Amino acid sequence: MNLKYELRNGWKVINEMNNMDAVMEYSNQYMDFLDKGKTERRCVKEIERLAIENGFKSISDIEKVVPGDKIYAINRDKNIALFVIGKQDIEKGLRIIGSHIDSPRLDLKPNPLYEDDNMGYFKTHYYGGIKKYQWVTIPLAMYGVVILRDGSIGYEEGDSVFCVTDLLPHLAAKQRQKTLEKGIEGEDLNLLIGSIPDEDQEKDKVKMNILNLLNSKYNLVEEDFISAEIEVVPAGKSRNLGFDSSMILSYGHDDRVCSFAGVKAILETENPEYTASVLCADKEETGSNGNTGMHSRFYENTVAELINMQTTYSDLKIRRAFSNSKVLSADVNAGYDPIYSSVYEKNNSCHIGYGVCISKYTGARGKSGTSDANAEFVGEIRSIFNEANVVWQSGELGKVDEGGGGTIAYILANYDAQVLDCGVGVLSMHAPYEVISKADIFEMYRGYKAFLNK
């Protein structure tokens, strides 16, 4: 009997279990999901498609639920929740994987379009925690929804890309003296979108030419931007990283990597003992507020609807359902980066390639803002993962006084559910392009599936 706790290398176990082909197939499916799900709305659309293909039905088409039923619910095209009804009444509790599908990005301001020195620009407002200097000079694409005066359109990625310009090094002496935080200011993240003038106009010739192009293609006028939701994200597809293709470089790993694993796991769940559920929420990167964030009543209301379809309705049954629930808060962790080792405590870090990571608590410094899972539930998850031979590890988000972070765990814990953070390590988190290990994401999917089916 080995008395020590030792990390297991995910690739070693994958080879021993002859799972290499399965890892690569799963990774290809995930990369396809990333490429299609550049925004929350597009993620919801793709998850709905996958759910329907696997026998799930919209809650609006259901009147009565019985064990084995597969159901999904959508909230304002930005949240989606999937359920497989268990043998036990929902009142006895659910097994929930809670994740989020929003990622840091740039959003267009309500009045974005302007012209300066014969060049057209869009003003942006960054969303979530970013390092602003990372968003200059890279190819960017726009996705979103525009509500027109006489209807609405879905704005898709075009052939052209856009960018935020930067100062050439020959003239950047003063810029170099600034901190990284101030090197690029938020109001300087202006998207370059065109430069051909409309010579028939007396002024704002470039701006008017752009408006004419948008009106011709989308029937859009300038006022329509006020009610638009247009997100600016890195252009291009996810890519294999490394000579051995062992990692994936892409925008949006945080937190679509956990969302896809949860969706994949529940699509393969049949007749669980307790109702299995996967929730993909919005607005986590800005505090989970609003009617599509985790603080909204969408998920609670959906569970209430399901209880009403299963048995005699009462508020007490909803309260019992959440109090009896067990939750994996599916969000990423800071992957240990040896180049920046000074901010990590190595023995309590999430290491790339060593499997899915559980975190008893998150928060900042003195555990501020965390739910801090109880020991019994952490032990239960350990047992589930060990029984399924899932490669797992434990990790914190950096050294105690270096910073920290949080997830939606505390929100679900406020319902009296048992909650544990569980995800994978990410390098370059919140950068336009992040890095994850294929071994880790495969073990995460296996872990989530074991949890939902226990």
Q: Can you give a write-up of this model?
A:
Helix content is about 30%, strand content about 25%. With about 450 residues, it is α/β, with parallel strands linked by helices. Strands 1-2-3-14-4-15-21-17-19 form a nine-stranded mixed beta sheet, sandwiched between helices. It has a seven-stranded antiparallel beta sheet with strand order 8-7-11-5-6-10-9, with helices on one face. A hairpin with a 2-residue loop joins β7 and β8. It is globular. The mean pLDDT is about 95.
Radius of gyration: 23 Å
Low-pLDDT segments: none
Order the strands across the largest sheet as they lie in space: 1-2-3-14-4-15-21-17-19
| Count of distinct strands | 23
What is the count of DSSP helices, taking H or I runs of 4+ residues?
Answer: 12
Largest sheet: 9 strands, mixed
The SS-based structural class is alpha/beta
- Tell me the overall shape: globular
| Average of the residue pLDDT scores | 94
DSSP helix fraction: 25-40%
Name the assembly state.
single chain
- What distance separates the N and C termini? 26 Å
Sheet-strand content, in percent, reads 15-25%
Secondary-structure map:
Blueprint: H1 10-16, H2 20-36, H3 40-53, E1 57-58, E2 70-75, E3 79-84, E4 94-100, E5 105-116, E6 119-127, E7 140-148, E8 151-155, E9 163-164, H4 173-176, H5 180-183, E10 191-194, H6 205-218, E11 229-234, E12 239-241, E13 247-250, H7 253-267, E14 275-281, H8 298-310, H9 315-323, E15 326-329, E16 333-334, E17 356-359, E18 363-364, H10 375-387, E19 392-394, E20 404-405, H11 409-413, E21 418-423, E22 425-426, E23 434-437, H12 438-453
Parallel strand pairs: 1-2, 4-14, 4-15, 15-21, 16-22, 17-19
Antiparallel strand pairs: 2-3, 3-14, 5-6, 5-11, 6-10, 7-8, 7-11, 9-10, 12-13, 13-23, 17-21, 18-20
